[in-house]
Amino acid sequence: MLQDNVVNGVKASAHLMDMQDGMGRMIMIMFTDEESGALISEGQCAIKVESPDQTLGSAQMMAMNENMFSSGVKLEQKGTYKFTVGTKLADGQKRSFNFSYVHQ
Question: pLDDT tens digits, residue range 46-95?
């Protein structure tokens, strides 16, 4: 699990998991309304990945049935990776969530 991140009343919880086929990792993010505790499953997300030495680009995240959004990521170098997730969720407000992970 990566650190939780709260922006304007929405908590983002991120998980980074190994993919079974050895093709990299999957980052999955769940959004929760801080006040009500309700899961937010409607909206759009994109992720930008920064490796230890360069920005790797951005990609649209896919909505999953489990009220999560996901995207495959490759962590080929050792060091700190930064993930910036831009959202426009059901309330129409744009938010940006930041996560980091140290690949050893």
Answer: 999 998 988 877 899 998 877 899 998 888 889 999 999 999 998 999 99
Nearest 5°: the CA angle 5, 103, 43 is 35
By three-state DSSP, how is residue 41 classified? coil
Domain boundaries, the chain: 5-103
pTM over 0.70: yes
Q: Take residue 6 and report the two structure tokens written for it.
A: 């709260």
Residue 4 has which token pair?
A: 């939780």
> What fold characterizes domain 5-103?
Immunoglobulin-like (2.60.40)
